[in-house]
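Data availability excerpt. The first of two example chains:
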Amino acid sequence: MPLVAVTRLRIRSFRFLLPFAWHTWRSFRQAKHAAGSLGVKLRIPEGLAFWTLTVWQDESAMNAFRITLPHRDAMPKLLEWCDETAVVHGNQGSVNQ
């Protein structure tokens, strides 16, 4: 059953925007090509909040991505760069009509 993960990260200051953008781009590319990745979307609305939506074949595929470079290097930096973070994930069942 596919797993959907959504994150929202708000950058604390414009001074963190460039390093955050660099790590985001690298992690986005990683996620697109990761084993078990079914889809990746990035939304950059106005302001300093960033949203990601990823769909994975299963939870083990998502966990393997999360602990692999370059994503693994970016995660500890979020404590310094972000003043708000939210993560939610869950299994997506099929819809019968």
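And the second chain:
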Amino acid sequence: MTTYGHTATGTSIDDTLIDKIAAEAEGGYVGWQLRIGRPPLEAGQSRTRTFRIGQALDAALQARAEADHVSPSAVVRDALAKYLIPA
């Protein structure tokens, strides 16, 4: 069976998953509600921060995100939490 990649949570995207998703789409998404915007990370609204990083750090960030099957933002949030919030 061919694997085309992985979802953000690490699930393999293969023919079986594609067939399942296609069947759901063809049957309609009964009971689904459209949610606009991103869900909050914690209670209330989350803040957005923008910052610049060099190419080497960006490459390391991207590699870690791919290895962990998460977004680069998730890697940054985790790293900041470990650095700023005492255990």
